[in-house]
């Protein structure tokens, strides 16, 4: 077997470049009297969720965005979470916020997401904004799909005309990514695969770009990857040995481009979250 040295789609380096740009824009907003603010609503003490939220606030500090944290206990009621959402909706210092998912069982996630002001939806996951994405209207874009497109663009991986296989139909990654990549501006041909796909290997083998977002360790093996293809690992599974992705290590030897986990799409997700907040603040200045 010939071993190719894949180009690494370096999410950390790309994030750093994006943060350099955001710092400039945050300074310009400051001159206009506005400091962008990102809110987070975290319910419960899941260590993974707490770590993600910490990471987001750490990134805010790097860029000059104000952090607004709303941390609620595990047993918070629907009404208490709704009240935190109402507060952020009403707070002029908050330009965008997220409700960290998954919420503890017993809370109605759909009702809470719908309660958010769509213009403050930093995740792009409000039904109105997902609807706008379907319709091709302007709105905040879901962070992980936007980060994936941005990463491919910066490394000049051809998207126009590419055969893309997305594995995973989740509402944060797979589904909206399919919508994003099939816009005229991206112009890819997308096959959305999932656990019910009959012959996953046959689908993945055709792909110029593979996005693995199923949350199943080693789902994508070396024999499935077309030599030279771009393989983006978005899966995260917690194991005894630490975090593992959906792409088997040997598959990286066959690929032409690899977005690894960690260090690939994850940092880009955070960068797009902050970008969505800065864009919301810029809109606020323009309409003032
Ligand atoms: N409302 C909501 N919005 C989300 O965007 C959201 C969510 N809920 N719930 C959980 C998932 C997961 N997620 C990640 C973001 C960044 C990394 C990330 O930066 N990962 C690093 C490794 C971990 C680290 O360095 O902290 C990496 O891949 O290099 C991972 C996972 C966002 N999510």
Describe this entry's structure for a reader.
GO terms for molecular function: methenyltetrahydrofolate cyclohydrolase activity; methylenetetrahydrofolate dehydrogenase (NADP+) activity. The strands form three sheets. A six-stranded parallel sheet has the order 1-11-8-7-5-6. Strands 3-2-4 form a three-stranded parallel sheet, sandwiched between helices. It folds into two domains: 34-119, Rossmann fold (3-Layer(aba) Sandwich), CATH 3.40.50; 142-267, 3-Layer(aba) Sandwich (Rossmann fold), CATH 3.40.50. The protein has ten helices and eleven strands. The protein is of the alpha/beta class. 5,10-Methenyltetrahydrofolate is lined by residues 51-52, 55, 98-101, 123, 143, 236, 261-263, 266-267, 269-270.
Features:
288 residues, 16% strand, Rossmann fold, binds 5,10-Methenyltetrahydrofolate, globular, alpha/beta, six-stranded parallel β-sheet, one-carbon metabolism, Bifunctional protein FolD
**Biggest beta sheet attributes:** 6 strands, parallel
List how many beta strands DSSP finds: 11
CATH class of the largest domain: Alpha Beta
Mass-distribution shape: globular
Category by helix and strand content: alpha/beta
**What ligands are attached or bound here?**
5,10-Methenyltetrahydrofolate
Overall number of structural domains: 2
Instruction: Give the strand line-up of the largest sheet.
Output: 1-11-8-7-5-6
**Which stretches are low in confidence, meaning pLDDT under 50 for 5 or more residues running?**
none
Number of helices: 10
Q: What's the CATH topology label of the largest domain?
A: Rossmann fold
Secondary-structure arrangement, i.e. CATH architecture of the largest domain: 3-Layer(aba) Sandwich
Arithmetic mean of pLDDT: 97
Taking Cα atoms only, what radius of gyration do you get, to the nearest Å?
19 Å
What gap, in angstroms, lies between the N and C termini? Answer: 61 Å
Q: Give the name of the CATH superfamily of the largest domain.
A: NAD(P)-binding Rossmann-like Domain
Element-by-element helix/strand order: EHEHEHEHHHEHEHEEEEHEH
Q: What percentage of the residues does DSSP assign to strands (E)?
A: 15-25%
Percent helix, as a range, is: 40-55%
Domain Tetrahydrofolate dehydrogenase/cyclohydrolase catalytic: 9-123
Protein name: Bifunctional protein FolD
Keywords: Amino-acid biosynthesis, Histidine biosynthesis, Hydrolase, Methionine biosynthesis, Multifunctional enzyme, NADP, One-carbon metabolism, Oxidoreductase, Purine biosynthesis
Domain Tetrahydrofolate dehydrogenase/cyclohydrolase NAD(P)-binding: 142-284
């Amino acid at each position: 077997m010939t071993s190719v040295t894949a180009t690494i789609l370096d999410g950390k380096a790309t994030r750093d470049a994006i943060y350099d740009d955001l710092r400039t824009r945050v300074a310009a907003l400051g001159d206009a009297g506005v400091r962008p603010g990102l809110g987070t609503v975290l319910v419960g003490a899941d260590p993974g969720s707490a770590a993600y939220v910490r990471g987001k606030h750490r990134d805010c500090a790097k860029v000059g965005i104000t952090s607004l944290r709303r941390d609620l206990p595990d047993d918070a009621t629907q009404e208490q979470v709704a009240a935190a959402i109402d507060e952020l909706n009403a707070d002029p210092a908050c330009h965008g916020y997220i409700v960290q998912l998954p919420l503890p069982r017993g809370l109605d996630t759909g009702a809470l997401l719908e309660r958010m002001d769509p213009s403050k939806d930093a995740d792009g996951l409000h039904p109105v904004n997902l609807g706008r994405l379907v319709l091709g209207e302007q709105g905040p874009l879901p962070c992980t799909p936007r980060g994936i497109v941005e990463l491919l663009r910066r490394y000049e991986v051809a998207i126009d005309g590419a055969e893309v296989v997305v594995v995973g139909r989740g509402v944060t990654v797979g589904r909206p990514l399919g919508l994003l990549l099939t816009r005229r501006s991206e112009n890819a041909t997308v096959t959305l695969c999932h656990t019910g796909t009959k012959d996953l290997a046959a689908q993945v083998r055709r792909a110029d770009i593979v996005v693995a977002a199923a949350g199943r360790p080693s789902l994508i093996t070396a024999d499935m990857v077309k030599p030279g293809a771009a393989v983006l690992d978005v899966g995260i599974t917690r194991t005894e040995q630490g975090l593992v992705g959906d792409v088997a290590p040997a598959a990286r030897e066959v690929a032409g481009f690899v977005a690894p986990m960690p260090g690939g799409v994850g940092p880009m997700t955070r960068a797009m979250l902050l970008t969505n907040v800065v864009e919301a603040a810029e809109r606020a200045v323009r309409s003032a």
